[in-house]
Amino acid sequence: MRNVRSAQVTKVLGAVLIIVAAFGACRKDDPESPTPEPPGTGPTSPVVFDINAVPYAQLSTYNFFQGPMADQQPSYGVLPFEPISTLFTDYAKKKRFVWMPSGVKAQYAADGALLDFADGTVLIKNFYYDNVQPGGDRRIIETRLMFRRNGAWEFADYVWNAEQTEATFDLVGSNTAVEWVDDNSVARSIDYRIPSHAECATCHKSYSQPVPIGTKPQNLNGDFAYEDGSMNQLAKWELMGYLESGFPSGINTVVDYHDVTQDLEMRVRSYVDINCAHCHADGGHCDYRPMRFAFGATIDPVNLGVCVEPDDPIDPSQTHIVSRGNTARSMMYYRINSNDEAVRMPLFGRTIIHEEAVDMIGEWIDGLSPPCP
């Protein structure tokens, strides 16, 4: 009897093993349960960047874009981004991208400090206008690169040809006439300035060393509409392998100064941070001035120039850098509302008045009280 039962148990166990083996074979071939790819077999970036050979003579050599370059469709690994508040450049539109070599990651340093980038990193910034006359077409003017080599940042600027098929390395500086109809259907014309190396260095410097401006966590801690869906930019950089994990969640973040639903003072602080703070900082071009326009510093109104007497007023009527409740006595307002090269602020990057910023800062100054002593 025991031998019979043992034989029956053996037969049942054998059947179970056959079923398990068959089920396992089916699961192995199931397309909904793919076998993970071994490390290093994923897509690779087609970007060409020999750190010992750059800058190349032609922008196309880098292969940053797929298809016609003017379409600005990034190649794999070329990641678009946009600061929450943007630098004004004569109403030019901009497309920004970052690329890093395989295995390279930036490190978080502080909310208001530049990300700590490694050698080989490239920041790409395209300047263009839509509705350019007479044909109403898009015209890309220039593509500026900043890349990191031997622990330091370097510049490369590429000027686009009239056919919009290629851009050529040029850091001499030049001007080009642009006539366009803006987003408010206003006809505009400028003599657009393509900067020289010296002009780039004037704004992009900290203690004489070139540095980027907008790539700080406080400026990137917001959503961007990527092709595969909207996502926080810092999280996207982390997912892409471009940012080391572990950055804080409670980042002190700027607002979009264009957004009229935001607090007015926050808009002003965000505007001067991106447009002015790189010069008005320790080691910046205007570090001898009393203002400190970094977003984290302007929580103190003195750093905004509120009730601070200027050491060199342009006109005796300008009693303060910012005179509470009085734009006529405020040197800041006078400078941003001027096209005079000897007066205007910022020094570079604009040849026409940023009208929306003038209105915003004027409204802010008029709303400050009580009057300065």
Main attributes?
single chain; 373 residues; alpha+beta; 6-stranded antiparallel sheet; two-stranded antiparallel ribbon
Give a written overview of the molecule.
Mean pLDDT is about 90; it is low at about 1-40. The chain is built from seven helices and twelve strands. It has helices spanning about 1-30, 195-205, 215-220, 235-240, 265-275, 330-335, 355-365; strands at about 80, 95-100, 120-130, 135-150, 150-160, 165-170, 175-180, 185-195, 205, 210, 225, 230. Strands 1-2-3-4-5-6 form a six-stranded antiparallel β-sheet. It has a two-stranded antiparallel ribbon with strand order 7-8. Strands 9-10 form a two-stranded antiparallel sheet. A hairpin with a 5-residue loop joins β7 and β8 (about 185-195). It starts with a helix and ends in a 7-residue tail after the last helix. With about 375 residues, the protein is an alpha+beta fold. It is globular and about 65 Å long. Helix content is about 20%, strand content about 20%. α5 (about 265-275) packs across α7 (about 355-365).
